[in-house]
Amino acid sequence: MNPTNCPHCGATTNPLKLSLYSTGRSFRCSRCEKHSRFDRRTLATLGGFSALLGALLQGHFRFTGLTLAGVAAVATVALIAVMWLTLTLRPVETPNA
Question: C-alpha distances in angstroms, 17 versus 28, 34, 96?
Fold first, then answer.
């Protein structure tokens, strides 16, 4: 089972939908409509590592203009793929409305 499958129903998640996820709101499964979240510690570690790697690459290669835009696009796709393959969704209890 992929770690980013829905922890409630096991449905496969959409990587693009995961890219819109934020720590302020939970991820909602499109099949069962239940909520889940990534583990905050691993999400923060991945974000910090990504920022550090980006800063080091920018400092070393000094990307500008279209080259910077292309590198940013490739880095975004790579980050989404890494999130989808490595981070684990955890169930979240939502209060009854």
Answer: 9, 15, 24
